[in-house]
Amino acid sequence: MTIEAVIWDFGGVFTTSPFEAFNRFEAQRGLPSGLIRTVNTTNPDSNAWALFERGEIDGAGFDRKFLEETTALGYPVRGAEILPLLSGEARPRMVEALTICKQRFKVGCITNNMAHGNGSTMAKNRESASRGGDIMQHFDAIIESSKVGVRKPDPRIYLMMCERLRVEAQACVYLDDLGINCKAAAQLGMVAIKVVSEPQALADLEGATGLTFPKS
After folding, report:
1. I want to staple 48 with a disulfide (CB 3.0 to 4.6 A). Which of 16, 37, 65, 89 is the partner?
2. Which domains are present in the chain?
3. Residue 86, by phi and psi: left (phi above 0), alpha (psi -120 to 50) or beta?
4. pLDDT digits over 164-210, tens only?
5. Could you tell me which residues come within 8 angstroms of residue 120 by beta carbon, excluding any fewer than 6 positions away?
């Protein structure tokens, strides 16, 4: 099927991955490597992370529940300590690719985020990320997990975007830095691109769309 839409994750795609900040935090605190990711992937439908991204608890609730989960593992860390780690540095070339894609395709953003403010989808400075304007203005549709009460990789959130863009899943390219989210998109028939690095993602997107993006 001909590609009609390109759908993007935000954090780890338009910004560097928060996992890098997690790694630095763990090293500085003398915590086991991968502790935060382990907490976030244990009981993935009912843990603090999931509840917060679906808007079922507030920031105070996330702080308490995350502390309970890390304490159970023997390394108490408050949720409030993790939230500042979620913002990444901007990737301007990805923003440029978005604007080029928008000239030919519909473009949407599906983001697992937190209603509290700077969640996992937000850059430290979204204005600088889009070279002078809010990056969100470029999208034809935006779906935030904290607002709709559904989070990736639940297939419903991808189908919500297809409905809003009025396209079939098979006509979409989807970019995300998490393999589990890409797998869910691919199972619906989307062309899924796991973002490992900016050059790799742009090369894969060129292959999927037939477009050409500036190299620098």
Report:
1. 65
2. 5-17+88-209 (3.40.50.1000), 18-85 (1.10.150)
3. alpha
4. 999 999 999 999 999 999 999 999 999 999 999 999 999 999 999 99
5. 11, 18, 53, 86, 111, 112, 113, 114
